[in-house]
Amino acid sequence: MEQLIAIIEKGQPFFNAIARNKYLKAIRDGFISVIPIIIFSSIFCLVASVPNIWGFYWPDDINNALWKCYNYSMGILAIACAATTAKHFADAQNRDLPKNNQINFISCMCAAIIGFLLLSSDTVATDAASGFNTTYLGSKGLLTAFIAAFVTGIIYKFFIKRNITVKMPEQVPPNISQTFKDIIPFSVCITVFWVFDIVFRAAFGFCFAQGVIQVFQPLFTAADGYIGLAVIYGAMSLFWFVGVHGPSIVEPAIAAALVANMTDNLAAFQAGQHASAVLTQGAQYFVVCMGGTGATLVLVFMFCFLAKSQEMRAVGKAAIVPVCFAVNEPLLFAAPIVLNPVFFVPFVFAPIANIWILKIFIDFLGMNGFMYTLPWTVPGPIGTIMGLGFQPLAFVMLALILVVDFVLYYPFFRAYDAQKCAEEAEISQEELAAKNAEKAAKLNDAFQGKADAKSVAAGAAAEAVKADAPAAVATEATTASDLNGKRVLVLCQGGGTSGLLANALAKAAKERGINLETAAEAYGNHVDMLPDFDLVVLAPQAASYLADLQKDCERVGNKCVACRGKQYIELSQNGDKSLAFVSGQLSK
Length: 588
Hints:
- With about 600 residues, this protein is mainly α.
- Helices cover about 65% and strands about 5% of the residues.
- The protein has 26 helices and 6 strands.
- The protein has helices spanning about 1-10, 10-20, 20-50, 60-70, 75-95, 105-120, 140-160, 175-180, 185-205, 210-225, 225-240, 245-270, 280-290, 295-305, 310-325, 330-335, 345-365, 380-385, 390-425, 430-450, 460-465, 470-485, 495-510, 545-555, 565-575, 575-585, and strands at about 125, 130, 485-490, 515-520, 535-540, 560.
- It has a 4-stranded parallel β-sheet, sandwiched between helices. Strands 1-2 form a two-stranded antiparallel sheet.
- The radius of gyration is 27 Å and the shape is globular.
- The relative contact order is 0.08.
């Protein structure tokens, strides 16, 4: 096992390079930006469809109004994704360009939208008016949207980098000058898409978006099989196990299929057919990643309620709430699960078992696949039942998945618990009590300027702490002066883990009367926010992006730092240490 982990670790730089690839990152970040559309539209879908299960049907006018909101949001998903992907790709391109000669991402977004429409839609004419054919403007057009965004960004960089633009006199206001600067790359983009569309339709008789679907459909079909599902979600867990954020590598390749399959499932269900697609966004959120990558929901309850080790119980109590909402980094790094040989097998194979169980229920028992999307932070059991439309078989499947996950994790959990108990037994109770008391005294004295002798079991330790009290008070005053009026942004992959540290900082600052502003966000949505912050902190699962973040921060003159796994968890659980950490980074 250790040899296998060593081999995987050797490939970590390669995996990090894949995660940082600007094309994959643009797909991921662009797709994340449109998730509110998917979730919002699914609310109307749920309201319109779920009551039908109990025999209630909305009147036609209400039903039409509900579906209109769904169609006018989900129905233009690819258009929105073309714009958001183009924006994030332009941000990545700008890192390689001078500060005074950057791509205008607004112009780039507009060009990508027009290019996408040229490649994916036909004109529909009636006696009264004409419009767009919407077949490929929703989830079916996502792959074409990504292509349009990349072509647009490449063309813009070519012209902006070589300064092939319409140049205006210095007296012209910058906003007017920028408009003329965009004319050439914008015009070339639209011309390229227009000519390509004419040639492609003349050669094949249908639009490019339809051709893309036909080319990739065999891959989507293969990915929906038992082997394909095992490779996809086994790889996602495997990457996470070695400390590389697995979804960042795997998800961009399947993002289009995840959404398109859910749309197909819903359409099949409404037509009275079997919704047979397994590889869906809901399946990934709530079945594969029940409790986060590695399906760790049952594991955190084991830590919290079944562990004999004091350390494991403490980790379980600290991590149980975040894990219930699919934020499992506190467990992954504090236990630790990452790079812990004991948990390698269940961490990789529990997600595979879960998705296979879902596929068995769909293929052999006739259960419909996921049709509705909810936020990824919805607890897995709730998301499973709602995403599957409250089907009776969904309750049976959920119970089976929880039992299987328990069976897979339990023997390895017991082995690790015995190992930790043995380690704790080597430390005498007196030493442990003295050590804990000393820590408590130092913590109290360092940030409140006093030590309560009654709380110290070891008198000698308390006296030593009291002797250092003046220095501790000075340190506290210095920390407050360093942090007053400062702003800290914490970034992670999805915006969940970053909130742990941001909240810890905000709470500790408020308790000490420090004027510190904090915010949490997903990496990729940070570029436009950077000028408003003094320090950016990267969570450990996003640490591979540090080099890119440093370039972004250099452009606006602020600082950034990446945290290690256990360090981040410790900071997020200890407001005092998090304040000291931020103060130290700002004073460098």
